[in-house]
Amino acid sequence: MRRHRNVKIVATLGPASNDYDTIRALFEAGADVFRLNMSHGGHDDIRARHNILRDIERDLGRPVCILADLQGPKLRCGVFADGEAEIAAGAPFRFDLDDAPGDATRVQLPHKEIFEALKLGSTLLVNDGKLRLRVEDCGPDFAECTVMTGGTISNRKGVNVPDVVLPLAALSDKDRKDLEFVCDLGVDWLALSFVQRPADVEEARRLAKGRAAILSKIEKPAAVEAFDAILEASDGIMVARGDLGVECPVHAVPPIQKRLIRKCRAAAKPVIVATQMLESMIDSPMPTRAEVSDVATAIYEGTDAIMLSAESAAGSYPLEAVRTMNDVAESVESDKTYREIIEASRSSHLTTTADGIVAAARAIAETTDVKAICCFSHSGSTALKVARERPRVPIIALTPIARTARRLALTWGTHSVETQSVERFKFAVVSAVRAAKAAGFAEVKDTVVVTAGIPFNVAGSTNILRVAPCDERLIFGSESD
Q1: Active site includes 437?
Q2: Catalytic residue among 5, 8, 12, 35
Q3: CA-CA distances (angstroms) from residue 424 to 212, 337, 373, 376, 398?
Q4: Is the pLDDT of residue 346 over 90?
Q5: 35-79, pLDDT tens digit by residue?
Q6: Catalytic residue of the set 123, 275, 411, 447
Q7: Is 299 helix (H, G, I), strand (E, B) or coil?
Q8: 466 a catalytic residue
Q9: Which pTM was predicted?
Q10: Domains of the chain, earliest start first
């Protein structure tokens, strides 16, 4: 099950990908991580999909990474007497807490937190930004607005408030129940929606209690502003371009994406680029050229993963969508320009012994004919640091901890292998060369770089490197320890 690319593919599961055979086919076609969307389906559905994924993991003998995406608070307007109303540009319109059915002049907005945060001149967006209103007057239970961009407003359409930080936690009551449920199931990553501040991430981490890594979705301007602090508090990031493109000017999203990817790479934390990557493949077996270019751009920028949403969850061509992403990735990564861009964007982070070891491993891989960099790790931190270097050879992450092997399946260029625990470096080397040969990365005549930490079983203690022959007779014949 070796991949011939470095970027990872995240596939969302749903009605179109809901049985063992389909999900296994998605994995074999190239999906590395599977997303369980907590906005759709009850706990029984989520449990069934989780169990199928663990069955596939057992049957194929490969770690399967599972990401549970929490819904987050949903801000919606109330209902209308006629189901909808037309509001014209320049007309006044009022939001309030009154639950009476709305009309062309007003509607309920059942979120007092929004009214508490609004200021004169604030913007309210309705229905994914199709309608835009400016606040002219506001109080604790109302907002008098002027319609800037008019159109049809209908029952329970989503409302976005892009230019204020709302006094809302990222986790709703539903999210807290969902979090506990999926952590008990054994998912590997939690994707956290509606993140505005580091405290949102810290709350999720307290509730997860180490059972899952925390991935923050960047979908609000406030999160972009506070990104450095959010990144520090998170284990990974998702650039959620859907809501981000609603709340920010659409032309601002590409530079934000590029900037966030570089910061994640510098921090050695995985980043996913998501939303509308192959949107047309929901209904078509072929993507548009613009979509292929969009996917390619994210890969050229060095993202760890690219994500399919409705394309694999509810579309007519889930398998074709995964294959298309895989083909685009292999094509981009075989382009000489790709390596030039990746290496030009590398920055130095030599502040610890581990940083020096992984930088040396990458340099050796670039100047000799080694076939892989093998990292023996418990926490996965060494593999993350090696991935930050974006080496030219594959990264093999060996760990005795299944949870670590699964989580690393999201990381750029990393082939995770669950192996037995070792107490001596010689046996770590043996495990590494056996894994490299078994997965087809190397042959007996080849060499690999092996990194580890001595003493073993201490997280973040990487302090040793060896260029090792893949002929095990030479390993045992050249050392006396």
Answers
A1: no
A2: 35
A3: 29, 41, 19, 11, 14
A4: no
A5: 999 999 899 999 999 999 999 999 999 999 999 999 999 999 999
A6: 275
A7: helix
A8: no
A9: 0.94
A10: 8-72+169-332 (3.20.20.60), 84-160 (2.40.33.10), 353-477 (3.40.1380.20)
Residue type present at position 385: K
Catalytic (active site) residue 35:
yes
Where do the H-state alpha helices sit in 281-396?
289-300, 310-313, 318-333, 336-344, 353-367, 381-388
Identify the three-state secondary structure at position 19. coil
Catalytic, out of 49, 106, 217, 258 = 217
Inform me whether the pLDDT recorded for 184 exceeds 90: yes
Predicted local distance difference test score (pLDDT) of residue 479: 47
Mean pLDDT confidence for 119-141: 96
Q: Is the pLDDT of residue 415 over 90?
A: yes
Contact in structure between 5 and 330 (CB atoms under 8 Å): yes
- Whole-number pLDDT of residue 212: 98
24 labelled catalytic: no
pLDDT at 326 over 80: yes
How distant is the alpha carbon of residue 469 from its chain centre?
36
Q: Catalytic: which of 76, 94, 259, 262? A: 76
